[in-house]
Structures are given as structure tokens and as C-alpha cells.
Amino acid sequence: MNESYVYAYLRDDDAPYYIGKGKGSRAFTGPHNVAIPPKDRIKILHENLSDQEACNIETDLISFYGRKDLGTGILQNLTSGGNGAIPGPSIRKKLSEAKVGKKPNNYGKKYKTGPSIAKSLAKKGKNHPQYGKGRTLEERAKISQGIKEKWSRPILTCPHCGKEGKVGMTRWHFDNCKLIKI
């Protein structure tokens, strides 16, 4: 299917400041690393493209206009375009500097080991005592009845908006209802 397109965000003087590729409403909604202009300054340059064709055109246009972060042109794009494009040297440098002196997220974490973990791992899958055993209709009915008794709750009605429900009604209704008359 040829659903992809290439678009440009234009300045007041109709010069592009961002080139992108997308499907659907991508050009009009984002997310982007630049401000999305009014609709009259978003120009669809090429339509009905395969994803690969859109990648190639986007890459060619970014190369033609050049990128500000590399000092080669007028575009605010932070990558060279296409799928999986590599960020420019300045962005890579910023990301690298931000990590200097920081410890990784799993620093100091201890992973559980020992007999209790080995015991639980030994009873997984085919080694589990219930593996391959079904339940009788009587057992199923007993479990079902227990769940129904445990979880049966009265139906509540919000006095402000009339919404009915069981669990979680107090979060958005009753004293927190947006239709409370002040």
C-alpha cells in the first residue's frame, strides 16, 4: 500500500524549516522536535508513496536543504531522515555529556538467587503439579461461586450526573463529579 507522504513545515517566507515523512495525520499532529505551524504553512510535497520511497525522498530533501545543527543548511531536523536515522554529532555529544557521572539504572541492584528461586524455577511448566490436569465441573462451579461472592458489590449511582457503576465510582463521581452544582 502506498500510504506514506513527505511534508514540509514552512516559515513566513515559504522557506522550509522542517522536512518529514509520515502517514495519516502525522504532519498535522506530531510528535515533533519543532513547533508545528498553522495548517496553511504545512505543505505535502509528495503523496501516495511506499514507506521506502518516502524515506528516500525525505533523506534527499534534508540533504539538499541542509541541517542547522550540522551547520550545513536551514532545516531544524535533528536527523538525516529515513528509517532509523542517526542523530547529528551535536545531539550525540549532548546525550553523551548528560550521562557523564551518572550510574546505570540497575547499579547496586541485587538479583535474587538461592534455594527459594531454584525451587520455584524447578516447578515451572511441565514440572508443575497441576500441569496438564483439568478441573472438574464441580471444581469450576465452586471457584466461580467464590469469586462471585467475594466480588459482588452494590451498584452505586452518582447523585450529580446519574452514572452507575461498582468499582472506582468515588474517584470521578460523588464529591469529585464535574457536574456538581457550585
Ordered list of secondary-structure elements with their pairings:
Layout: E1 4-10, E2 16-22, H1 26-29, E3 42-49, H2 51-65, H3 89-99, H4 115-122, H5 137-151, E4 156-157, E5 164-165, H6 169-172
Antiparallel strand pairs: 1-2, 1-3, 4-5
User: Structural class per helix/strand content?
Assistant: alpha+beta
Beginning-to-end CA distance, first to last residue:
54 Å
Number of helical runs?
A: 6
Task: Kindly provide the radius of gyration, computed on alpha-carbon positions and rounded to a whole number of angstroms.
Answer: 29 Å
Strand order, biggest sheet?
2-1-3
Characterization of this structure:
This protein has 182 residues and is α+β, with helices and mostly antiparallel strands. It has 2 domains: 4-90, no CATH class; 135-182, no CATH class. Helix content is 31%, strand content 14%. The chain has 6 helices and 5 strands, in the order ββαβααααββα. The chain has helices at 26-29, 51-65, 89-99, 115-122, 137-151, 169-172; strands at residues 4-10, 16-22, 42-49, 156-157, 164-165. The strands form 2 sheets. It has a 3-stranded antiparallel beta sheet. The relative contact order is 0.08. The mean pLDDT is 86.
